[in-house]
Amino acid sequence: MNPTATAPARSRRALRAVLVSLLIGALAIAGAAVYRSASATVPTGSIADGASLADVPPPPDGAVTEEDGLLPSGATAFDEAYPGIAGLSHGLRDALQRASHDAAAADIIVLVNSGWRSAEYQDQLLQEAVSHYGSAEEAARWVASSATSAHVAGDAIDVGSYDAVDWLTANGAAYGLCQTYGNESWHFELRPEAINHGCPAPYADPAHDPRMHG
User: Model pTM greater than 0.85?
Assistant: First the structure.
């Protein structure tokens, strides 16, 4: 065997080994970056009347669908193909669309976690709240019945991002959009008089709202 003939071969093998090592390292770095990005994403889902952003479990598979008002993550006031948006009252949807348009100019995306809901969907959320909070009395502080819920009437939306909640808290009155309950900052309803007079003080929670007892 000619020793001089094997030197180039050894060099090529060494170069390939270096390139393979570099490729593996690059893939590992890219994978870690993707993992960090995915882990940093805050999921959004449907929120019950006044329930915390994380406390209310999603409805069981097959129990409710988009036809009942269930909205996908990332829905906005402009996604009228979804019944949860299309079922909102015209005045509320129009005010929310105008507000969303202006918020976008400030780089704020107003996501809607929940809008119109069917009575079946609302009743299920109430049942889940009773199970979660341990009593009908405590659940009533967070979730309305289908007979009294502003969501079922198409008169309420739950905003799904914290920056949008902050923006609407500061600017919503100009569109007639007001927070209704002190314990659920993301729940907004239309109050047209707020455009000229500002939003009324919110109720402490749904149990203090006279409409819940009518």
Answer: no
